[in-house]
Every structure is written in C-alpha cells, then in structure tokens.
Amino acid sequence: LGGGGSTSAAAAADADSSLPQSQNQGVIAWAQKVGGDGPAVLIVLGVAEVIALLLCFPGYSSIEYAAGALFGGFWGTVACSAAKTAAAVIAFCLMRLLQDGPVGRWAERRVAGGSERGGAQWGKRLRKGIQKDQFKFCVLMRCSPLPAWISNYALPLAGVPFGTYLPASIIGMLPPIATNVYIGAMGASVAKAITGSGRLGNGLGLPGLLALGLSGLSSAILVRQMATVDLDEDEGSQQQSSQHASRATA
Fold this sequence. Notes:
Order of helices and strands: HHHHHHHHHHH
Strand content: under 5%
Structural class: mainly alpha
Largest sheet: none
Number of helices: 11
Number of strands: 0
Radius of gyration: 20 Å
Shape: globular
Distance between the termini: 41 Å
C-alpha cells in the first residue's frame, strides 16, 4: 500500500492468516463447550468474532475456519457475514461518537500499526483515495486480505458516510469470509477422510475458489490504487495556498 503504513497493514494480515492449526481446533472445542452441539454454537462464534473485531484481536479468522468446519460453507458464511456486519456497524458508530476521544485515538493508533510516520502516510493515501471513488475504494479494502478491523476503523476515520460504508462493506466482506469458511470446511472434510469417519468432499468448491480469486484480485487492485495516489500534488497545493495567504497578510 505504500510506505510504512503498508508494511504494518501487511504484517497485520500475515499475523491473522498464519495461526497454527491447533488454535483453530481450540476455537472449535471452546465453542462446542460453551454452545453445545447445536445451532447455539453459531451464535457463540458470531459473538466471539464481533468482540475480536472490535478489540482488533489478531486471529479472528480462526472463528471463520471453525464455522466452516462445524456447519459447512453456506451456514458458516451466513453466520460470519452477520457477525462481521454487526461489528462493522458498531465500529462505525463508535468512531462517529467517540472519534475525538481516547477511543478514537486508540483506533487511529491501531490502524496506523504503531508506526506514526508510515501510518500517517497510509492514512493520507487512504483519505485521498476515498475522495476519488468512495464506494469502489471501500469495496476493494473489504475484499482484500487486510484484517477486517482495519477497514472497520479506517473507513469511518477517513470520513466515509454510512450510506456508502454499509453496502460496500457487506459486498466486499463476502469473498474473504467465504474463503476462510470454505477452507475450514475443506479442512474438516480432509480430517474426516483421514480418520475414516467420513468421505472426502469436493475440496474448496467453486464458491470458495471464486471468493479466493476475488480476494486476491481486489488486493492487487487496491495496491495499485494506493500506489497511484499522489500525495505530493496535494501537499504542493497546500504549500501554495499557505504562501498566497502569507503574501496577502503581508
């Protein structure tokens, strides 16, 4: 994405996607212990994902893998989509109400990834990119492998209105959710085949493959979009305006 901000964002994405398989199994065991063996497990997983996204926890994708392993691609995707949408709406409201307070400053630090200089550059590129085409930019961010909590806070902080934020988020979140859920379902199918407790399914499946392809394509387009954002032009115009104002005052 350009600059130190892109490095921190990429690191966050890697941290979320490189968790050990043992953690995925731990999430499944915990959800079954709390919610039993019925549909209540989906509610437990959904609430856990909302909390993880609001608090910017890495590894929330394990919840989506677990949903796929326990309930298959379709219902796992439905449950995780509902959870992510709820988290996105709550995050938007928090930023609109508390942006200037400690919560807003905490969110800005999380989005910047702890890199003040790089995070500031990334934030400027994001704001200017959104000014060009809000809906397209929001969909690309959501559809890319960036952690969802970055988009949850970065987009409201950049001034995206709710009327654009919500539909773009719902559309853009589907491919990465479906990818994670179908990977979880595939893993469960392989495990059952190895242990002899079930048959090997048809792998990732067409929906999962399409989602994976869309997510990768969106990531490439987003990188290109961010790279073409010209901050120098914007800063130059600001300097010229300041010089004109100084001359007028003099």
